[in-house]
Specification:
alpha+beta; six-stranded antiparallel beta sheet; 61% helix
Length: 377
């Protein structure tokens, strides 16, 4: 008898959560509205972007094939993921509001389906979108961004102009610090170069030179007109030379990279780069820690915003669908605002990068739970 009861309970549970026709209907509505809205905004974005950059494309000789296959086919995935959470939210609110005003939600609940069970197909859809977004962000888009950014360097941005980056201070490994009075991006020469090596708080070695130049053939730095001062307790040794090849844990690209180069890194590349920066003792590592944390936290916002969207739009209110969409947009921009604020606190060192990335999710998860509790069931 006990065995029969266990089997009956298990069968009842499976029947309860097995996908029904209404589940497929909601999933189809959700995903259809999401991809339609995303495709629409991508088309608008491509048109505006093309109108802005068409003169650069023509002036610098980009072919139609290059524009389509090297630029826009790599631009579309980046743009799609960038706005995926926002359009998930808008899609949920739009089609759920329409179902509410057509009394479909009332009919579903009156048929015996609980509000919690009604959330099931929404969360399945959110899971599919979240997986899609996470996979693109960490494995597909970095490669696409490399091609897109390379195209922009050739056909959009002005050709590299000569500049001297002043007063460069860096720790290239624990206890080893370098300084350049200036670095020329075209000649790849650092002027008035010095390197200091410490053991604890004691200076044990210092190299000073007129300039240091990158040798692209040897993949090494060449130091010119140098002095090396070695300190051993009370003894000092001074060595002078004209030319010295040396290997440093840093290359010329470190001084010439654009701020958006991190967009071309997969999650694996980003982890490796963070380890290099940690080895160097870099002071700007917070930026990359936040980026890594965001890539893990951002997909979860799809679930949270979906839950908020369903609880907001599943009942009729004065103002109709417009009021639902307005409230949804306000909450979406609130999420983005919280993300920016928390990121700035993390950059200033007042907040850990992981916590900064997850704070918007935590705050809006609390909001979603409250809205779920007060939603009419």
């Amino acid at each position: 008898m006990e065995k029969y009861n266990d089997k009956t309970i298990e069968q009842s549970f499976m029947n309860k959560w097995k996908l029904k026709i209404i589940d497929y209907y909601i999933i189809r509505k959700f995903l259809g509205t999401f991809f339609f809205a995303l495709m629409l905004i991508i088309c608008i974005a491509v048109i505006f972007d093309l109108a802005e950059k068409i003169d650069d494309f023509m002036e610098k000789g980009a072919t139609f094939k290059q524009i389509i296959f090297e630029y826009y086919l790599n631009f579309i995935p980046y743009f799609a993921v960038l706005f995926s959470s926002l359009f998930t939210f808008i899609s949920v609110i739009f089609f759920t509001s329409k179902m509410a005003y057509d009394t479909e939600i009332v009919a579903i609940l009156n048929s015996g389906m609980s509000f919690r069970r009604l959330m099931y197909p929404y969360l399945i859809s959110a899971g599919l979108i979240s997986t899609f977004s996470f996979s693109l962000s960490n494995y597909v888009i970095p490669g696409a961004n490399r091609k897109r950014l390379a195209f922009e360097e050739t056909y959009v941005h002005n050709k590299p102009y000569e500049y001297n980056k002043p007063n460069i201070h860096k720790q290239i490994e624990p206890g080893v610090y370098i300084y350049m009075e200036s670095f020329n991006n075209l000649s790849e020469i650092g002027y008035k170069f010095s390197m200091e090596k410490f053991k604890g708080d004691l200076l044990v070695k210092k190299l000073m030179s007129d300039y240091i130049q990158w040798n692209a053939v040897k993949k090494k730095w060449t130091v010119h007109n140098y002095y090396i001062r070695t300190i051993d307790s009370l003894k000092e040794k001074l060595v002078r030379g004209d030319v010295l090849d040396t290997t440093l844990n840093i290359g010329p690209d470190e001084f010439k990279r654009r701020d958006n180069f991190v967009d071309a890194m997969s999650i694996g590349d980003l982890n490796k780069y963070i380890k290099v920066l940690q080895l160097q003792g870099a002071d700007n590592i917070g930026l990359y820690l936040i980026e890594r944390a965001k890539r893990l936290a951002f997909p979860f916002s799809t679930f949270i915003l979906t839950m908020i969207g369903v609880t907001l739009s599943s009942r009729k209110i004065r103002g109709g669908i417009g009021m639902h969409i307005g409230a949804g947009l306000a909450l979406s921009f609130g999420y983005i605002l919280f993300m920016q604020f928390s990121s700035q606190f993390a950059l200033s060192g007042k907040l850990s990068p992981s916590l900064a990335a997850w704070i918007p999710n935590i705050i809006f998860a609390v909001i979603s739970l409250y809205l779920y509790r007060v939603a009419p069931k």
